[in-house]
Amino acid sequence: MATAGKVIKCKAAVAWEAGKPLSIEEVEVAPPQAMEVRVKILYTALCHTDVYFWEAKGQTPVFPRILGHEAGGIVESVGEGVTELVPGDHVLPVFTGECKDCAHCKSEESNLCDLLRINVDRGVMIGDGQSRFTINGKEIFHFVGTSTFSEYTVIHVGCLAKINPEAPLDKVCVLSCGISTGLGATLNVAKPKKGSTVAIFGLGAVGLAAMEGAKMAGASRIIGVDLNPEKYEQAKKFGCTDFVNPKDHTKPVQEVLVEMTNGGVDRAVECTGNVNAMISAFECVHDGWGVAVLVGVPHKEAVFKTHPMNFLNERTLKGTFFGNYKPRTDLPEVVEMFMRKELDLEKFITHSVPFSQINTAFDLMLKGEGLRCVMRMNE
Ligand code: NAD
Ligand code: ZN
């Protein structure tokens, strides 16, 4: 490739300050260093995690920064030591990596790579502690090792899943975070039995993907919980059989769910990021066998509080990043589920805009409208 080894100038959406609209700037993207890959991003979507770190209300502010982690692209060039990927390969970046070498990567039970697990406060590459993005020499920080709100970005090879080149990147880009996370949270972690009752807290894209997982597992009753009453209509397409809005009740929502289900739900999956919803999700599961899984990214200072008796009564609380999928090993197979039409992604993509309109995607997420907004980089 003519650009290999050279600095590439391209457009990126830069967050200069917390909560201020992103601005499209010309950035310089340095060539990939050892074990790194430069990727041409074709499509990127917005996940609520990007919004939390842009608002930086309950998170560490790291600015100026290029956010974005849900995307699909093509390898432009590779750095020294990269043998698994070549220019032209189709890839999905993942915010948590897989080095394939550490104790976690070697364990069947974990996807929390020692080297490349999510780090929300680091704004530089792990190899040399530097950023690959500059504007007139001024360093711009990375975000969770992906920074996909840029036409080109540099990513550690361990944070890239090589996928089937026939898979349409404008659709499968949403598997790079939210949809795989929700799906895996149910299928790999909550593991509901056929005929069981599952509660899903938060009916955004992540929660509805968790719901899709519950439907696939054969759950017979799926209760959606959300503060936004408009979320129910959409959720019905994902198998939602009952809807509870905590605002419609004077008692805590966990009590409402326990009453509705004669003792509690078999499984609960929390996809809100709100600590009270996390507590409710745990306290609404049935004693003896109930399992609750936390997925939402909490406020930095959040504290989870519950009575220990809730555990003694044989309830289980778990949490997960990326639905426990190992990004490089497992994500290509999730893409194949889509290719075999076992997983519909189109219903998650409610909006699509040119990259220049990225702030529209933020507005939609803040208003709670739609699920995923895919941005087209080449427009
Ligand atoms: P979203 O904003 O589209 O959806 C969140 C939904 O939760 C909204 O519909 C909102 O109305 C609802 N909600 C908020 N507070 C609530 C409460 N107290 N009770 C009930 N409902 C409530 O967001 P999303 O993109 O679907 O992401 C969901 C969460 O998952 C976020 O916290 C995000 O950061 C997190 N996330 C985690 C991982 C992971 O690997 N663990 C990966 C991706 C996203
Ligand atoms: Zn590892």
Brief sketch in words of this structure:
This protein is of the alpha/beta class and 379 residues long. It has helices spanning 48-55, 103-106, 169-172, 178-190, 205-216, 231-236, 253-260, 275-283, 309-312, 327-339, 358-367, and strands spanning 8-14, 23-29, 36-45, 70-78, 90-93, 133-135, 138-140, 152-156, 160-162, 197-201, 221-225, 242-244, 267-270, 291-294, 316-319, 349-354, 372-376.
Verbal overview:
- The protein is α/β, with parallel strands linked by helices and 379 residues long.
- It has 11 helices and 17 strands.
- Helices cover 24% and strands 23% of the residues.
- It is globular, with a radius of gyration of 20 Å.
- Helix 11 links the parallel strand 16 (349-354) and strand 17.
- The chain binds nicotinamide-adenine-dinucleotide (NAD) and zinc ion.
- Zinc ion binds at residues 98-99, 101-102, 104-105, 113-115.
Range of helix content = 10-25%
Round the mean pLDDT to the nearest integer and report it.
97
| Percent of residues in β-strands | 15-25%
Specify the overall morphology. Answer: globular
Instruction: Give the oligomer, counting copies of the same chain as homo and different chains as hetero.
Output: single chain
Query: What's the β-strand tally?
Result: 17
Structural class assignment: alpha/beta
Uncertain spans? none
Please compute the radius of gyration using only Cα atoms: 20 Å
The string of secondary-structure elements, in order, is EEEHEEHEEEEHHEHEHEHEHEHEHEHE
Task: Identify the bound ligands.
Answer: nicotinamide-adenine-dinucleotide, zinc ion
Q: Compute the separation of the termini in Å.
A: 22 Å
- Helix count equals 11
User: What about the largest sheet?
Assistant: 7 strands, mixed
Protein name: alcohol dehydrogenase
Pfam family, one: ADH_N
EC number: 1.1.1.1
GO molecular function, one term: zinc ion binding
